[in-house]
């Protein structure tokens, strides 16, 4: 069990550490080392986690019981994400995203602090057979995308020097997205689910501003695919959260 907890911590935390390093690193060689090293560690950790899980007798594992300083920290981070998303939404004129983010955060605080949580505190992280399969998909497919992107982006900018090189931000966002995906499939509480959903939203908000062919040119063209995908993702996460909040409301006592 202790070994699986270590592997779980690596899967969730390592992508965020890699994202920070990639955001600070401007060297192409160091970028390759960080991306290749992180991809290898994540793949090995995911495979080891799957082997440990399926070789054990218990096919439902729970980690990190809810409550205490960790949940309060998550609430504070959730409020910080709400401010960040609101600022980005105003900057990129996605005002509906700001409204949904504020409403979503308020609902989260109401659920966590308003007495709607169940009396028995659940564990924040949960793994079953489907969770392990999703972890393997994210670790293999997601990291291979980042490995492929290293060469692709290097070749692109070597042929198109007229465009601003934003690879530090690009690869940092890729690894933030990977970490949020791992956290999302492992989350077992509404607070943690919202936190990792909040990690996705800064990645999709400026997506149409990240395309090199749209930067530096005389005409800024919209990107309907990214814009519609981001809108669909954010709206669906908001509606999902409202439904989850309603379903967790305690039943009213029968009248005497």
Itemize the secondary structure elements and their pairings:
Layout: H1 2-24, H2 28-55, E1 61-65, H3 69-91, H4 95-113, E2 123-127, H5 129-159, H6 167-186, H7 190-204, H8 224-247
Antiparallel strand pairs: 1-2
Count of alpha and pi helical runs: 8
Report the sheet-strand fraction: under 5%
> Rg to the nearest angstrom?
20 Å
**Which word captures the global form?**
flat
* Strand numbers in spatial order across the main sheet: 1-2
**β-strand number:** 2
What is the oligomeric state here? Answer: single chain
Largest sheet: 2 strands, antiparallel
- Structural class category: mainly alpha
Regions with little confidence, pLDDT below 50 for 5+ residues:
205-256
Percent in helix: over 70%
Write down the secondary-structure element order: HHEHHEHHHH
Q: Quick gist of this model?
A:
Helix content is 71%, strand content 4%. It is mainly alpha-helical.
């Amino acid at each position: 069990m202790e070994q699986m907890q270590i592997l779980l911590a690596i899967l969730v935390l390592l992508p965020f550490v890699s994202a920070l390093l990639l955001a600070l690193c401007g060297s192409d060689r160091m970028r390759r080392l960080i991306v290749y090293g992180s991809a290898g560690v994540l793949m090995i950790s995911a495979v080891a986690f799957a082997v440990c899980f399926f070789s054990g007798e218990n096919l439902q594992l729970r980690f990190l019981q809810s409550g205490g300083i960790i949940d309060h920290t998550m609430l504070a981070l959730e409020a910080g994400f709400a401010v960040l998303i609101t600022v980005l939404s105003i900057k990129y004129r996605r005002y509906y995203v700001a409204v949904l983010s504020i409403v979503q955060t308020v609902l989260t605080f109401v659920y966590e602090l308003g007495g709607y949580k169940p009396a028995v505190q659940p564990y924040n992280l949960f793994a079953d057979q489907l969770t392990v399969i999703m972890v393997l998909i994210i670790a293999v497919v997601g990291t291979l995308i980042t490995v492929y992107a290293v060469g692709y982006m290097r070749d692109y900018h070597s042929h198109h020097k007229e465009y601003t090189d934003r690879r530090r931000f690009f690869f940092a966002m890729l690894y933030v997205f990977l970490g949020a995906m791992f956290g999302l499939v492992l989350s077992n509480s509404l607070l943690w689910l919202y936190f990792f959903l909040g990690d996705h939203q800064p990645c999709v908000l400026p997506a149409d501003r990240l395309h090199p062919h749209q930067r530096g040119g005389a005409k800024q063209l919209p990107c309907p695919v990214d814009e519609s995908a981001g809108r669909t993702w954010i709206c669906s996460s908001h509606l999902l959260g409202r439904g989850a909040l309603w379903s967790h409301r305690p039943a009213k006592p029968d009248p005497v």
